[in-house]
C-alpha cells in the first residue's frame, strides 16, 4: 500500500550500510531518529468537512489525510509530525470529462476551491489545501486512466490525464511505442501532472521534455471547455498549449492529453566514465551536448555527489574494490562520475558510444564500462525510497534545481552550493550539499542540487532549518540569473521568486489568463501566480 507520510509503497525499503551511517554522522552529525505520528491519530483529528453533499464526493477522513500533502520537505514535516494545517473537505474521483464539468459546476455554486490531483508527487506545495474559510475539494484524476485513441501513422496517443507512468508505458509498449518520459517519480506521477508542472524525464536529451510531447488535449475550466488540437505545427498566433503546460491546476482540469510517441528503441545501454576533476567533465559534457550525438541520458555528478553515491551504494566490499581500481587509474578524491545512456538502432548506439567516449577521453575521462550505468538504470526509480530510510535515521533530504546558459553554469552551481553550506552556520548545524548536471541542452544545462541536514527535535525547528536553506539557495539562484525551477514547478514554495523571473507585465498576463479561465478564483488558489 502507498505510504501516507513518505515515499512510495510501504512494502519497499532501501537499507543503507553501516559505513554510510558513519559517513553521515561524521559529515552532518549524530542524530536521534524522529518519532512519527501514526495515521490513526491524524485521521482522528480531521475536522468535519464543510462541503454540501454530492454523489461523487467522499468526506472519508483517511481519504482527506491521504490527499492533504505532497512530497516537499515541509509536506514531510507536516505528515511525520501530524501537524497538517489544512485538509481538503472532500475528495472526488471523476471518471470522465462530464463528471469533471459537473464537479466544477458544483464548486462554482458553493464557492468551493478545487485542487486537481494527479499522483500527489509535487515537491513544491502544488496540491496542498491552504487554510481559509472556503471549503476545498480535491479532484483526484486517477479514474481518467485509459488510452482513448491511438493514431498509428501519426504516432499520436490520447490518454485520460490521470494515467500513471507504468500504465501509460504498458499501453504504448503493447503498440511498439514509448513516450520516453521517465521522471524519478515515474511509478506514481501522472500525465496530467507532468503537463501541469512542465516535467522533465531522465532521458529528456533524446525524447524531449513534456512540452515536446504534449500535442493537445481537453481542458475543463470554470469558464468552459478548451480543446487543443494536435496540429503538428501552427502559425495561428501564440500556442495555447503553453498556457496549459505549467498551469498547475490554476486554469482548469486537463481531462485528456494527446502525446507524441516514438517507436520503441532497438537498443539501449547505460555506461559510466570517471573524470579526474569536475571541470574536465563539465567541458566534455558541453561538447557532447553541442555535438548532437544521439545519446538519451547525460548526468555528471560533482565530487561530493560521486563520493556520497559510492558510499550509499550499499555494497561495501564492491565499493572498496572500485575505489582501489579508480585510484590505480589515477582518479583521486576529486573524481566525478559521469553516466550516459544511448538509445536507438544498434549501429547508431555503437557509433554514438564511440564518439562520446572519444570526446570524454580528450578531457581525461576514463570509461569504466556498463556496470555502474546498469545499476543506475535498475535503481532509477527505487532511489527515491532512500528518503524514507534517511528520515527514519534522522536526516532530512531535499533537492532543488535551476537551469542556465553554459557560460553561467559553473559559477551558479558553486554559488548555490556555497549558500546552502553556509545557511545553517548560525545555528551550529551542518548540511551535506552536492550537485549534478543533467537535462543538458546545446545552450545550457540544469543544475540539480541535493542537501541533507539533521531533523530537529521538534517540527518547527526542522522547518526553520529547511526555510533557511531553501531561502539561501533560492536567492542564490535568482542572483545568478537562473530560473527558479527547471522541472519541479512553482506551487507555493517558489511563488515568492516568480515576479523576479517573469517581471510585472509577465505576472499580469498570467493573472489575466487566470481571470479569464476562472473569474471566481476557484482553481488551486495560492499556487503559481498569487497567494490567493
Ligand atoms: C523523489 C522525487 C523525484 C522527482 N523527480 C522528478 C523528475 O525527475 N522530473 C520531474 O519533472 N519532476 C520530478 N519530481 C516532481 C514531480 O514528480 C513532478 O512535478 C510531477 O510532474 C508531478 O506529477 P503528479 O501527477 O504527481 O502531479 P501532482 O503532484 O498531483 O500535481 C502537480 C500539479 O499539477 C496539477 N495537476 C495535476 N494533474 C492535473 C490535471 N489533470 N489537470 C490540471 N492540473 C493538474 C496539480 O493541481 C498540481 O498543481 C520529483 C518528485 C519527487 C518527490
Topology:
Elements: H1 18-27, H2 39-44, E1 57-58, H3 61-66, H4 73-81, E2 90-92, H5 97-110, E3 113-117, E4 136-140, E5 147-151, E6 156-160, H6 165-173, E7 177-178, H7 191-196, H8 204-207, H9 210-213, E8 214-221, E9 224-228, H10 241-244, E10 253-260, E11 262-263, E12 267-275, H11 278-290, E13 295-301, H12 303-312, H13 316-328, E14 336-344, H14 346-362, E15 366-367, H15 371-379, H16 386-393, E16 395-405, H17 409-423, E17 432-440, E18 444-454, H18 459-480, H19 498-517
Parallel strand pairs: 2-4, 3-4
Antiparallel strand pairs: 1-2, 5-6, 6-10, 7-11, 8-9, 8-10, 12-14, 12-15, 13-14, 13-17, 16-18, 17-18
Helix pairs in contact: 4-18, 11-14, 17-18
Question: Would you kindly provide a written description of the structure presented here, covering whatever features stand out?
Answer:
By secondary structure, this protein is α+β, with helices and mostly antiparallel strands. The protein contains 19 helices and 18 strands. The radius of gyration is 23 Å and the shape is globular. Flavin-adenine dinucleotide binds next to strand 3, helix 7 and strand 10.
